[in-house]
Specification:
Length: 382
């Protein structure tokens, strides 16, 4: 990619997309490994606190993922804006894998007595609608992304026509709806805030998709501003609880969900800033011929990001609970869960690929069967 050394080409974000998916996915996994600390390996408080802060911010990986998804969908819809084909392609990418993992997971939970509700709730869970009905956060991201696929064409048309104002308008409506829900139906707000507060990241990704696709260049000096923003937003997130306690009398964990939008929106901004900075780092290392092994590793994980999200989070928690893992074995648990999850990701994808290949051949087989029947009928009549 020809570009002045003083300029940063935004198409870099697209080039590093799978690598960034991998980084975001692993960060999310680390966030959910809340048993993992450095306390059992060092007495250095600084190292313990830095690792804890880094792990604790891992949910920002969701915003990175949604931003990149918005950019990718912009590319896809620009090439072919037929609504039906778009939905079919997106849903067929997600649903077979999600359904396979979801059916296995929830069936196992019901079989072992962890869930005892009836068939209606079981069907709601495996169809990923239970999150909206009851706020259950198992696989909540799948519920969100399926809805975002449905509304994406609307967002795309608005942003395509009104550009910046269209993007800001959509975000304003989403934020207003979130706050209206917070006051009118606080129960549903507690259910849905984890998803609603992430929608702006997706919308900004759609808006940014045009600049990425057109290979818009910005002066590299702007990257220093992004770095400063990253430092400032990180500090703000790590000061979230003290700030809330200072501003809100009686602030506690019980009322935290009603104010967590502050954390979500700051985290979304940080996630987008990190996408830009990390894409620059990834591409710079590639051009210098460095970091190939690490980049390939992240890219591999990024290829299985959805499967890893669904499998790792539950395997990790299940093993920890069932085997009552001791602190000295936490790292072993983490890496063991990681390896097992990756193996299962590959197997699940393979099974789904075989299934989809069969489904795509099926119409041809039916057509051949019809033709054979017609020939036999004609032969009989003769």
């Amino acid at each position: 990619m020809a570009s002045s050394k003083k300029m940063f080409n935004l198409f870099t974000i697209s080039e590093a997309r799978n690598v960034l998916f991998g980084i975001a996915t692993l960060w999310i996994g680390l966030f959910h490994s809340d048993f993992l600390t450095m306390a059992q390996y060092t007495d250095n408080k600084f190292i313990i606190d830095v690792f804890g802060a880094f792990r604790g911010m891992g949910n920002i990986g969701v915003d990175m993922f949604l931003f990149l998804s918005g950019v990718g969908l912009f590319f896809s819809f620009t090439k072919d804006n037929r609504f039906g084909r778009f939905l079919k392609k997106r849903f067929m990418r997600v649903l077979p894998t999600a359904l396979l993992i979801g059916i296995f997971y929830f069936s196992f939970r019901y079989a072992t007595g962890r869930y005892t509700s009836g068939l209606k709730h079981y069907l709601s869970r495996i169809s990923f609608t239970y999150f909206f009905a009851k706020g259950e956060r198992v696989f909540w991201f799948i519920s969100l992304i399926l809805v975002l696929y449905l509304v994406f064409p609307i967002f795309f048309k608005i942003i395509e026509r009104f550009r910046l104002w269209g993007m800001l308008g959509i975000i304003a409506v989403v934020v207003a709806a979130t706050f209206a829900l917070r006051f009118i139906a606080p129960g549903f707000y507690r259910y849905w805030e984890i998803a609603l507060c992430r929608v702006p990241s997706f919308v900004i990704g759609i808006w940014a998709g045009k600049f990425v696709m057109e290979k818009k260049e910005i002066n590299r000096k702007w990257l220093w501003l992004f770095l400063g923003l990253a430092v400032g937003l990180t500090a703000l997130l790590n000061s979230y609880t003290p700030i809330m306690k200072a501003l809100i009398p009686g602030y506690s964990k019980d009322i935290e969900p009603m104010y967590i939008f502050f954390y979500r929106y700051v985290g979304a901004a940080l996630g987008i800033v990190l996408v830009v900075l990390l894409s620059f780092v990834c591409t710079s290392l590639r051009h210098k011929g460095r970091g190939n092994l690490l980049r390939n590793f992240f890219e591999f994980v990024g290829m299985y990001s959805m499967e890893y999200y669904m499998i790792y989070l539950n395997i990790n928690h299940y093993i920890e609970r069932v085997y009552n893992t001791k602190p000295e074995h936490y790292v072993m648990l983490y890496f063991g869960s990681f390896v097992v999850s990756l193996v299962l990701c590959v197997l699940v994808r393979k099974v789904c690929d075989i299934f989809m290949a069969y489904m795509q051949r099926k119409p041809a087989n039916l057509q051949e069967l019809r033709e054979a029947r017609k020939k036999r009928k004609l032969k009989t009549e003769d």
